[in-house]
Amino acid sequence: MKAIRRFTVRTVLPDSIAPLARLAGNLRWSWHQPTRELFNDLDPQIWAQSGHDPVRALGMVSRQTLERISSDPDLVGRIRSLDEGLERYLTEPRWYQSLGEDAPRSIAYFSPEYGISAVLPQYSGGLGILAGDHLKSASDLGVPLIGVGLLYQAGYFKQSLSRDGWQQETYPVLDPNGLPLTLLREEDGTPARISLPLPNGRHLMAQIWRADVGRVPLLLLDADVRGNDDAARGITDRLYGGGGDHRLQQELLLGMGGVKALRVFERLTGAPAPEVFHTNEGHAGFLGVERIRELMDTGMHWEEALTAARASTIFTTHTPVPAGIDRFDVGEVRHFLNAGLAQSVPTNKVLSLGAEDYEGGDPNVFNMAVMGLRLAQRANGVAKLHGQVSRAMFSGLWPGFDVSEIPITSVTNGVHVPTWVDPELTRLAQEEFGVGTVHDRDWTRAYEVSDERLWDLRRRLRSNLIDDVRRRVRAAWRKRGTPDASLGWTDDVLDPDILTIGFARRVPTYKRLTLMLRDPARLKALLLHPDHPVQLVVAGKSHPADEQGKRMIQDLVQFTDDPEVRHRIVFLPNYDIAMARTLFPGCDVWLNNPIRPLEASGTSGMKSAINGGLNLSVMDGWWDEMYDGENGWAIPSANPRDGIHTRELYTADQRDDIEAAALYDLLENTVAPLFYGQEPSSDAGSAGPSEAPADALPHEWLEMVKHTLAELGPKVSANRMLRDYVNNLYRPACQSGRAAAADQYQAAKDLAAWILRVRDAWGGVAVEHVDSIGISDAPQIGDRLTVQAYVNLGSLKPTDVVVEAAYGKVSEADNLSDHQLLELSVAEDLGSGRYLYSGEMHIELAGPFGYTVRVLPNHPGLASKAELGLVANA
Ligand SMILES: *Cc1c(COP(=O)(O)O)cnc(C)c1O
To answer: Where in the numbering of this chain does the DUF3417 domain appear (predicted)?
Structure first.
């Protein structure tokens, strides 16, 4: 029989163990090992059956068990002490509380997905995991963040395989009542709701679920409510489900509904209004439109409201892959806006925000990343290289500026260490260095750990992974229709003494899941090498609509099915956080081979590094800036890049051949021999294990592991990332936002009026003539050069602009590189808007030298010179 309705009965806990409800309800348990251990000890069997889900586990225990727990003084004591610990964690001052008054009182963080724990499957990959880690580190550091997102009824799909290795998807329906969520309610107990008008007189309502991620509340909007028609109820059916119209409505709900949800939350809890709004990728961009609507409802003009909202908004772009950017049909967006979503806001103004009105743009498209950039005074990419790539990619929005001046900075991603570091490694650090050090995650003392101890730990982590792999491989084969009787071989899959390489991620084409299959015979030889074999653990989900990705998975699965190699290479279906937490610690080497520079940052290699794994990666994303020659290996890229441009010397096929060959060479000649303590050799076969002393440990390898733990650990930590966001973006944005809002938004109004005036007058601004004085026929280093520029400012005043000389080395094509800037000052008012500017340059470089002069708008309310996209070059 099939039930027609399901609901979850919440357990009533006896008084003495009542704090269990809070310990289960606050997701801090997902990274707090002692709390997880408590839930295990309450009833190990149920803990396992629940999928390590405290809320579910509490729902599963019988009354008798609860009675037993409540009369066990040891357990009751542990529960009380963990609850007190949680209370301290939630209330005591942390890093952020040591900052001054200039730090924002509250920050709203918007993301379409959150990967916090396997029990809340509201993520598809890196973007969501990053958002989850962002919230967790914010909590650890006391950053007053509020997360905003959507609650998907089905979350992301579960992956399994057909007999012939084709990806199968199932969407388990979630019951929010069985998840660690509470419904936000009005004082009278009815669920709090927000509502958005839709075309044809329809309405989209949503209720608001609250998850607690340590100190950080996360609000999730859920459209599956009575009162919505079926189509509206389906809007939050699944993550990234459906086509354009469905997705557009999800994003309208996330952005506009999200701001409304925040207002409800403020009203019901007395929480302070966010002073900074941070949008994680473009999907939530409509939040800016809603904030503009709020301001325009108070009587401000479009330009004023835009100026005020931008001041406190941050946009983080996450992809250099155009397919990763949301682009909607302009007509579709207009259709929805015309329904009255933001009545006081002129529709054409909103449409102009997402317009690709630059060279190469598509006039029929509304681009969410472009809107994100126009609605945020500050923007960033997620690694240094990605910052560079993003500046080039979006340079069309700031014509006339050098790519290096495009106002997109970067904050390199990080990972939440307590979530991703293995408890066994934490225990080791605890025993070796004491509790305080572990708490601070200070791994610089990793060098003090003995080789024996570290090697023993690494082997244990590898064994843990292998146990998990065998279980998963057996289950996967059963699902593919093979009877148990033929699965005896799965007990011997992988070997705890063999170099273990991991590769797991989503499967978009650019990540090249199957690069390792480029030369199957060579891969086979590596796996079966007599002296230094390797073994591979591979996992990853393909987007359900991506046939090419599914074919790559199938190719890989079919390779792993070969009885000759199936004990050395496995594909594990259904990559998720639960698998990842065993996988990262268990791998000795983490492999990453995207097509450079398409991986914005990537974080999985970071999770490996904090567990003592060594990275073997293409120089892309985070690795491009953090590879130091001793923490892993760089796979060379075939096509050379100078700065931001790639010269396509090779076709895609040739490139893959070259890069795969480089990967095989590295594995065979460098990585594997080092792991087995053999001399690295280019002459394969000459060095055998017999040459190394019998029980010798691979000293050099272990040095690299210690170096990785000590040096890379702190750099890849999400705490470092959060501090960077706070110091480089949140605080400046808060300052701009406060300045704009002061005196009933007088500053924003003044700035908006100034911007309009400058835009209007800019056509009349020109550098008319430039002279240089003092240069001899044979200029030398140390010479001084006076520049005189005749500038027409039209109706603008010298206080509205800055006139500067850019000077330095020039290329043959007269392009300036690494230029310096010199601000010129007014030497003479020539009348009718014309001025003579001058300044003195010091020539400090030999070789070809050049300079130019330009005029830029100048106002203390601007965050960058390029902000308005206005420049008059000589
Ligand atoms: C870390 C992680 C990702 C993201 O990996 P990238 O290297 O950033 O692509 C995806 N899924 C899971 C389960 C992860 O743990």
So the answer is: 13-120
